[in-house]
Amino acid sequence: MRQSVHTIIPNLIEQHYQRLLNGWLACQKRDGMIGGQISEDQLAEQARRFLAEVRQGVAGGHFDDISGPEWDSTRSLLDTVATERAVQGFSPSETAIFVFSLKEPLFELLREELKDVETLARETWAASLLIDKLGMHTIEVFQKGREEVIRRQQEELLELSTPVIQLWDSILALPLIGTLDSARTQTVMESLLERIVSSGAEVAIIDITGVPTVDTLVAQHLIKTVSAARLMGADCIISGIRPQIAQTIVHLGLELDVVSKATMADAFALALRRVGKAVLNRAQPKPNGE
Amino acid sequence: MAGEIPILQIGDCLLVSIQVDMHDRLAMALQDDLTVRIVESRARGVMIDISALEIVDSFIGRMLNNIAGMSRVLDAVTVVVGMRPAVAITLVELGLTLTGVRTALNVDKGLAMIRRLIDSEGDESARRA
Question: Can you give the pTM of this predicted structure?
């Protein structure tokens, strides 16, 4: 539903541009937007650019639909502001107030300029409609920005929590921390297999000390990882099985079908033996000096 | 008997490098060729290199299992080498863990594994004798 509305708002913004800008900035300052996460200069610059874009936008006359081409640059500016604020950790209302606080000076201006009640109501409605639309758009973009931040953090967490460590020439260790879900298993498997290829490892030790519980699903994921490593020609040893976990595994009747050791040290000793290496005590120095 | 997949002999080992898409007829031809070659050359080990394969489906998985079974009957050990990570993950997701087949990371390690297996077998039969 696009319709052109004949209002005096474009003229009003044109004539009282500076006053509107100052009023708006004062409102934001009063609402405690300045001095926190954003400096006064930065805010003034954003406000100045936004008002300039709005001035161009309202010239098109479409107040009830801001998806048109004349609003393109306004929207892209709002996108930038909202995304920046999402990343900087602003709250939704702190972001929304950027747009909504424009209402006060604008309405005040309308009240001063228009004496006819009918016209005033119509003009106020048009202005309110426009600012609401712009505010909604800001919040939507802000929300998307926040979601993007959360998604990226999740990815980083996933990367962080699946390191593959080279213990010896052809021995890899994979300390698992936290629960193993399907997505984690996929990442773990991929990084383990990539490292098997790049390092030519023959033995991989999967340490589950940091896995809080082992249920049938976790066991299935472990078995998958072990099987995939075996297909690549690397043997797996599971280590770090805590007493409770050992009990759970037996109670659930899980068959891991892989060599398991209680501690990483035992697993490492076995791995060394498998690749034909041994750890020896150093010969005692002779009593008559070195 | 000239199949499309070459079979190379290294000592008492046969090396098969699969570098083209497998289909039924090719797989049958390979199984024919390979069994004949194992008998002819009295090979003790078979190495199947699949490092060039980007897609391995249940059909190829079954073929690898079959070849391992046939070689075992002819007293040769089979080692599949060079599987790519993506292929390994796909096979595991498909539930094909090729339990009857030995695997190694590359041709080098595969050859060493075959040597080890043949040697340990020799020890056992010597002890039995």
Answer: 0.62
